[in-house]
Amino acid sequence: MADVHAEGSPGDDRHRASILVVDDDPRITTLLMAALSKDGYAVTVVNESRKVVSMDLSSVDLILCDVMMPHMDGFALLAAIRERVSCPIIFLTAKTDEDSAVLAYGLGADDYIRKPFGIAELRAKVRARLSRGSRRGRPRLHFGSLDMDFQARQIRVDGHNANLTDAEYRICALLAEHPGRAYAPMQIWEACLASEDDPAANDTDSDATAAVRVHLSNARRKLKALGVDPIRTIWSVGYQWVA
């Protein structure tokens, strides 16, 4: 099947947001194309996951990706592209075991929606992921050699980009804006990762806590590789940013 493109309504500010849908099931992609295009997004559908590896993804604002696909599954695809994309990535999958969710988050996924899903839930999560980029009042924060640029949504250490995923960056930004304050995993989930438009979404406490821990572990590993370690674990409480 040929790749499909659809432009959103020009009257909606969200028409500038570009969404890539990767799924080999045309029934799913037709549903997502109709719903997301109606919401005003520019949607591109790719039914063959291997094609995504060679695509220019620099202008993509969000990726919706199935897990169980032939030739290259969603996990393998994410591992192949994650180093060159920082946009949110949401997995759509029929897998329900916790190990699969932890694997997805460990590879850099930002969310994990189990099939069958409600289209309202998915639309809410997409809106939440795309709306979290412009809420910071201050343009930058500095902590010694570490520079947090809210406009670029990046953390640099001595000029070197930490290459955080969207979820990793959002968690670090929350902690950095309130240095010294300890956040419990569920507080971090609710502030940075949970869908604001659908608080009753199907995320269990264990799923949420596992996701936060994996994202934080990945962020700390990347920051430590650049010589800084601003995040502390407060046992039995949560996490804090040390200025």
From TrEMBL:
* Keyword Phosphoprotein set for record: yes
Domain named OmpR/PhoB-type is located at 138-243
User: What keywords sit in the KW lines?
Assistant: DNA-binding, Phosphoprotein
Q: Which domain of life is it from?
A: Bacteria
InterPro entries named in the record = CheY-like_superfamily, OmpR/PhoB-type_DNA-bd, Sig_transdc_resp-reg_receiver, WalR-like, WH-like_DNA-bd_sf
Q: What positions does the domain Response regulatory occupy?
A: 18-130
- Give the lineage: Bacteria, Bacillati, Actinomycetota, Actinomycetes, Bifidobacteriales
Tell me which residues form the DNA-binding region.
138-243
- Please report the name of this protein according to its UniProt entry: Response regulator transcription factor
Tell me the residues on which 4-aspartylphosphate occurs: 66
